[in-house]
Every structure is written in structure tokens, then in C-alpha cells.
């Protein structure tokens, strides 16, 4: 064979190989690997043949040829729930999400009858079709894993695919804090289809135990009260950009209810605030003119309570409505401030110099006499004297108080000077001196005078006015405040705790 003939044959073989290569690139079906005798291949080799591009397109739905709906069943296993601070309005979730669907293109029972399951990780996920889901209330999320991501896929002989991935996500939770810290919060994880609408892909929860909680799940600030699941269809359009396109999209929701543990707030906020309010009442046992200790005690309790309340307010969002903790703050602040106002009131009365005339020693007349302006009090006393000329003036309230003592021999109990007013027919009043026993006996005799004659007419009954010094009035108000303030605070507590627990 000549050199010319040899070169001609080599060129012909090259042309044939080139043309065959061009045909192979244009039609890959010509070199599609065979699935016969599939048990002889390794798992990776068999899966590369089963999911080869010549017979499998991972961008198309499993039912793209028939047009049927693809049903994707979901289940979740919750490892960890951590509600964040109230001002963040979110919570962290660690969970295992499992999706199950059937892809007839991956059925290999006829090709590899002895193979029971194909298991792979992220490399297998890159070969097959996987539904694209997203969490609509997601703030951030990621796949968990150390060296590689925790993704697991198993394919059954009939083409059933089980896709598992371990995730951590921070999800928004729009909390209602009106009853904080006695509130119950309802948060959810929303799974929705991103690419396919409900006419071709439907999401469904597994029938048996769709969501399971880890036995080692423990919450610190909250307790898990209840949880449930539901399925729905959401509307998506281009305007709100909720999904990838317009239409109705299938969605899954896992909702759980959390109850806030109040033990921390009772020990660190409510009980200390009760003690601070009770401490402000110590001022009622101090003398009304003790300005320095009473002002120091009042201001220190007020500042201590404001500091305590501000530490709690820093952890809360600034909302437009009033929270239960703010009602408690306003109530306690009102009681502490009222104690300061009471001191200013009694201190002002204590520094007065003129005695006050009272018709009766009770709250009505004492408060009326102390709250009435000085000029008005003078005019009122003048009118009373003009309208009632037959008035007799008794001793001060302190003397009356001493009369009830068990020791009549004490100072000021021997003799009393009493002035009696007689009818206008007499020119001058009669002044008599009586001992303590005679005075008591005379009061028991229906108003008869001890020094008068037996045949004289009984004088008309007169109104008796009692005088109290400003110091006595201030002390009287302090004594009543020792009882009134605790009773009002107990009433406030009854109303407040009834509201937070019963409404």
C-alpha cells in the first residue's frame, strides 16, 4: 500500500468520527446509558444513569407529561424554640423539615429489583427535581451542618422521594403586649410554594403527627401551651410580590401558642415595687414638721421605683397602646406621689398658728376647715355666730381627749372653767367651777347646771363647738393616712390582678 493510499484512509476515518461526534452532540439519545442489569452498578453509577439528562430533566415537574397535580406532603420535627426579646418581635426555630412526593421518572423497580433504596446527600439533590418552598414570615434562615449541609434524600423503588433538611430560622412574630407580662403569644411558621401555583402543586401536611416536638425541648421565659397545623391557599400577584408570579399558591402553617412565665417578673418587678410603695408609708409615722426625713424618704422611694420600672421598659417595644405593666407603674407612682402630697398638705397645716373651730370632730368638718381659705373661714365663723347667738365654746380637742383617760388626777383634770350663755333676759353670764366628777354627772343629767337653783327654768340647748390646733389636725390626718393608703393599695391590687387573670 502506497503512502498516498494510507493517508486517504486515515482522513476518511477522521471524517467519519467527526461527523459521528456532531450527530451525538445534536441528539444525546443516541448515547443514553442503558439501565439494564441495574443491580450490577453501584448506587452512584446507577443514579447517574437513572437521572441522566437524556431521560430526566430536573427543571420539569414529575407530572409534566400528564398535567396532574403534584402532591407534596410535609412534616416537621422541632428541636429548639427560643422566643427573642419582646422588642425584637421574632423567635428562633431549629427544626427538621421533611418533604415527600412521588416522581415516576425515578422508579427503578424494573431495572434494579434487588435495590431497596437509594440514599444521597446534596449531590443527589442537584440531580433531581425538588419543590421550591419558602417561609413567608422569615427574617433569616440557613441550613445547619458542620462540614457539609445537613441534607438527606432517599428514593424508593416506586419513585417516592423523601427529602429531609435540618434548618435554623429566625421568624417574625407580631406580638400583642397589652397584657404584658401576663400575655400569651401565638407565633407561626408559614411555608408557601414559590414557583408553582396551586393548580399544579399542592402542599399537604402528613396525616399522622405532622409536627412533633423533641422530648428535650425546654423553654425558659415561656411555656408551650398548644400547637396546631393548617393548610390554606394564598393569593399572589405582581403588585405585592408575594410569590414568583400571579395566581393562587398552596401554603402550610404551623402555629404554636406560648404563655409567658411570670415568676421572673413577680420576683424582680412586682414584689419589689410593692415593698417600695409600702416603704413610702413610713412617712406617716414621722412628725409633720420633720421635713428633712419625710422629703428624703419620699423622693428616694420615687426614684427607686422609677429606676426599677425603667429597667423593665427597656426590653419592650414602643407601642401605641397601654400595657398591663404600665398600668401597674402608673398606679404605684400615683401612691408614692400621693404620699409626698400628703406630707406637703400636713406640713402646711402644721405651720399654721390659729386654732380651728369645728362643729364635730370628723373627716367632713376637719377637711372642710383645712381646705377652706382663711378669709372664707372667718366669714363662715362670723355668720355662724350671728345666726346662733346661744353658742357655748368648749375646751380644745386635746383636753377632751384627755378626759377619757383612766387617770382623772392627771394634769388639767382637777377643775374646768365652763362658760354658759343664758337668755337675753339676764344681764351677765354665771361663771361656775366644777370638778371632773361633777362635770360628768352634770352631763348625764340631761343638760342641767350643777350650780343653779332648783326652781330656775332649764336653759335652751346650745350647739357646742370644739377647737383643734393645727398640730392636732396634722396628726389626725397622718393617723388616718396610715389606714387609708394601705386599704386603697389593697383595693388597687384586687382590681389589677382580677383584670390580668380573669379578663
Automatic annotation (TrEMBL):
One of its GO terms (cellular component) is plasma membrane. Residues 270-497 form the Neurotransmitter-gated ion-channel transmembrane domain. It is a multi-pass membrane protein. GO terms for molecular function: extracellular ligand-gated monoatomic ion channel activity; transmembrane signaling receptor activity. Coiled coil: none annotated. Residues 1-21 form the signal peptide. Residues 382-409, 440-465 are annotated as: Disordered. It catalyses: chloride(in) = chloride(out). Keywords: Cell membrane, Glycoprotein, Ion channel, Ion transport, Ligand-gated ion channel, Membrane, Signal, Transmembrane, Transmembrane helix, Transport. InterPro entries: Neur_chan_lig-bd (IPR006202), Neur_channel (IPR006201), Neurotrans-gated_channel_TM (IPR006029), Neurotransmitter_ion_chnl_CS (IPR018000). Residues 45-261 form the Neurotransmitter-gated ion-channel ligand-binding domain. It holds the Pfam family Neur_chan_memb. It is found in: Cell membrane. Its main location: membrane. Residues 389-407 have a biased composition (Polar residues). The keyword Magnesium does not apply. Belongs to the ligand-gated ion channel (TC 1.A.9) family. This is pH-sensitive chloride channel 2. It comes from Parnassius apollo.
Amino acid at each position: 500500500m502506497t503512502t498516498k493510499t494510507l493517508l486517504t484512509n486515515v482522513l476518511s476515518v477522521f471524517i467519519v468520527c467527526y461527523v459521528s461526534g456532531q450527530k451525538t452532540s445534536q441528539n444525546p439519545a443516541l448515547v443514553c446509558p442503558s439501565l439494564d442489569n441495574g443491580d450490577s452498578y453501584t448506587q452512584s453509577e446507577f443514579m447517574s444513569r437513572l437521572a441522566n439528562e437524556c431521560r430526566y430533566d430536573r427543571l420539569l415537574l414529575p407530572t409534566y407529561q400528564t398535567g396532574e397535580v403534584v402532591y407534596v406532603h410535609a412534616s416537621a420535627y422541632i428541636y429548639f424554640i427560643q422566643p427573642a426579646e419582646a422588642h425584637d418581635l421574632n423567635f428562633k426555630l431549629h427544626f427538621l423539615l421533611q418533604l415527600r412526593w412521588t416522581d415516576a421518572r425515578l422508579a427503578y423497580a424494573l431495572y434494579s429489583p434487588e435495590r431497596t433504596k437509594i440514599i444521597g446527600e446534596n449531590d443527589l439533590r442537584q440531580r433531581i427535581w425538588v419543590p421550591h418552598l419558602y417561609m413567608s414570615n422569615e427574617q433569616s434562615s440557613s441550613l445547619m451542618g458542620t462540614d457539609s449541609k445537613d441534607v438527606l434524600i432517599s428514593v424508593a423503588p416506586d419513585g417516592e422521594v423523601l427529602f429531609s433538611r435540618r434548618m435554623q430560622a429566625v421568624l417574625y412574630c407580631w406580638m400583642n403586649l397589652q397584657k404584658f407580662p401576663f400575655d400569651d403569644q401565638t407565633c407561626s411558621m408559614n411555608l408557601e410554594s414559590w414557583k408553582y401555583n396551586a393548580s399544579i402543586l399542592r402542599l399537604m401536611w402528613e396525616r399522622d403527627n405532622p409536627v412533633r416536638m423533641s422530648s428535650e425541648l425546654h423553654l425558659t421565659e415561656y411555656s408551650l401551651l398548644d400547637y396546631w397545623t393548617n393548610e390554606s391557599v394564598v393569593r399572589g400577584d405582581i403588585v405585592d410580590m408575594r410569590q414568583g408570579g400571579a395566581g393562587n399558591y398552596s401554603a402550610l402553617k404551623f402555629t404554636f401558642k406560648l404563655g409567658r412565665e411570670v415568676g421572673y417578673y413577680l420576683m424582680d418587678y412586682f414584689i419589689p415595687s410593692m415593698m417600695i410603695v409600702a416603704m413610702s408609708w413610713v412617712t406617716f409615722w414621722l412628725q409633720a414638721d420633720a421635713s428633712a426625713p419625710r422629703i428624703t424618704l419620699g423622693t428616694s422611694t420615687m426614684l427607686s421605683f422609677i429606676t426599677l420600672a425603667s429597667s423593665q421598659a427597656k426590653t419592650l417595644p414602643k407601642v401605641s397602646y397601654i400595657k398591663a405593666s404600665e398600668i401597674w407603674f402608673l398606679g404605684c407612682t400615683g401612691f408614692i406621689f400621693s404620699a409626698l402630697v400628703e406630707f406637703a398638705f400636713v406640713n402646711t397645716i402644721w405651720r399654721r398658728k390659729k386654732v380651728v373651730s369645728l362643729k364635730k370632730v370628723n373627716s367632713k368638718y376637719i377637711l372642710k376647715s383645712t381646705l377652706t381659705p382663711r378669709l372664707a373661714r372667718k366669714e363662715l365663723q362670723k355668720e355662724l355666730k350671728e345666726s346662733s347667738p346661744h353658742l357655748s365654746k368648749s375646751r380644745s380637742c386635746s383636753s377632751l381627749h384627755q378626759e377619757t383617760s383612766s387617770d382623772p388626777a392627771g394634769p388639767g383634770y382637777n377643775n374646768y372653767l365652763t362658760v354658759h350663755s343664758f337668755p337675753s333676759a339676764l344681764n351677765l353670764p354665771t361663771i361656775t367651777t366644777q370638778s371632773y366628777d361633777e362635770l360628768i354627772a352634770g352631763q348625764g343629767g340631761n343638760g342641767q347646771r350643777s350650780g343653779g337653783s332648783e326652781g330656775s327654768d332649764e336653759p335652751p340647748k346650745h350647739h357646742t363647738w370644739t377647737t383643734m390646733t393645727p398640730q392636732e389636725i396634722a396628726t389626725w390626718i397622718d393617723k388616718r393616712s396610715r389606714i387609708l393608703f394601705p386599704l386603697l393599695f389593697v383595693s388597687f391590687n384586687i382590681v389589677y390582678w382580677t383584670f390580668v387573670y380573669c379578663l
